[in-house]
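Morning run. Coffee first, then this:
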Amino acid sequence: MPDLSILGSLAPYHILTYGTLLGSSIFQSFIGGVVAYNCLPRPQFATLQTAIFPIYFSLQSACPVLLALTYPGSSTSKHSVLGGGGSTAPSGYTGFLAPENRWSMAAPMAAILAANLLNLVWAGPRTNEIMRLRKHQETRDGKKAYEAPPHSKAMQKLNKDFSRMHGMSASLNLAALAVTVFYGVVLSERIQ
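And here it is:
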């Protein structure tokens, strides 16, 4: 039977938060989004993504903050799973921001937070606005944005703007995922 006294430390909460960050990112990026795109008609897919993305990017923005707050630091008990062996960094955000952790822990979390906040407050809302404008232009043109060309000049511009914003959003998401994986390697070094 495991010794449940470890639940009094920050270590299990740090690991669970990291798992949530990585797992939700992989699922939304490579499973949920892809399946929804392949199974739903475009209007329903757009409606689903518009509803999911604010929740997803809020979660992805909260997790790096929670990781900083649950940094386990060093452990004086026998539970040094994430204690770093002989590390003297304190627990919580002060240990997370300690000079020896700035580039391996704090900088990656800041990058993940920044990428997801950009998606939450800028790229996502801007993409939704372009989708709304395209819907109005479809009514004016009598043709869907995703139908084969030719398209009106206004629709061509909106399609280009949408592609650009969608590409930026996807790039931010994949960059955050790459940094999340990097942090997983950093975290695994502490478990040895």
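Residues 102-141 form the longest helix (40 residues). Good start to the day.
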